[in-house]
Amino acid sequence: MTFPDRRPFSGDPAAQPLLRLLLAQDGSATRLCEALARGPIGVHLHSQQRTQDVPASVLAQLGGHAWLERATTLHAHGEVLMDNLSYTRLDAVPDWFLAGLDAGTTPIGHLLDRLPIQREDLPLTDDIAARLWPHVGLPDTRAAKLYRIRTASGPLMLVMETFRAGWTSAVHG
Fold first, then answer.
1. Which of 42, 52, 63, 119 makes a 20 to 30 Å CA pair with 166?
2. CB 93 within 8 A of CB 64
3. Strand order of the sheet with strand 42-51?
C-alpha cells in the first residue's frame, strides 16, 4: 500500500501548537487518531519480525534477548496520520498481546488498553529513527517522539511515533 500524500507535519506556525500537543501527550496516540478521524482508523503493517538484531538504544532501554520489531502507518480518509516503529520485548509480553500484534491489524494502543502501563518519554535516538525511515520514507525527526512502556514487571516496549500532515488536514478539513 502506498500513500502518495504522505507529507511531513506542517511547518506553518499555526500548526505548531498542535504539534507541541502531540509531542507532549502521554496517552494513546491511537485514540487521538480515532477521535480526529471520527471513527476507526486503518493500520498498514510495513514490516513485523522477531529479531535479536536491534539498535543499541533498544537493548539499553528494554533489556532482553529477543524482540518483535514492527513498522506501521496509521491512516484515515486517505491521509497518513502517523508512522510508527515499535520494539516489544518478547520475554515480557503476554501471549494474547503478541497474538494481537501478529495479526497485524490492531493498533498497539488497543492492545495496551488491556494492560496497566506507564509511559516514559525518552530522547529520540538516531539508531532507532534510522530503522523506521526505510519503511516509510520521508524522515522527519522534528515531528517524532520516542517513549518506553513499562508494566509492573519491567520494560515492555519502545515506541517511536512520527506525526504526519494528515493531522493538520483533518483538523482544518
1. 119
2. no
3. 42-51, 67-76, 79-89, 154-163, 144-151, 118-122
Quick one: which of 7, 9, 20, 28 has its CA closest to 159? 28
Instruction: State the maximum Cα–Cα separation within the chain, in Å, rounded to a whole number.
Output: 45
Residues 166/81, Cβ–Cβ less than 8 Å: yes
Which parts of the chain fold into alpha helices (H)? 16-24, 29-37, 56-62, 95-103, 108-112, 126-136, 166-172
Q: List pLDDT tens digits, range 64-89.
A: 999 999 999 999 888 899 999 999 99
The percentage of residues in the chain with a pLDDT greater than 70, rounded to a whole number, is: 95
Cα distances (angstroms) measured from residue 68 to each of 37, 56, 102, 155: 28, 15, 9, 14
The three-state (H, E, C) secondary structure of 43-69, written as one string: EEEEEEEEECCCCHHHHHHHCCCCEEE
Cα–Cα separations (whole angstroms), residue 156 to 16, 59, 81, 159: 31, 12, 24, 10
This model's pTM is above 0.85: yes
Picking from 68, 69, 67, 73, the residue whose alpha carbon sits closest to that of residue 45 is: 73
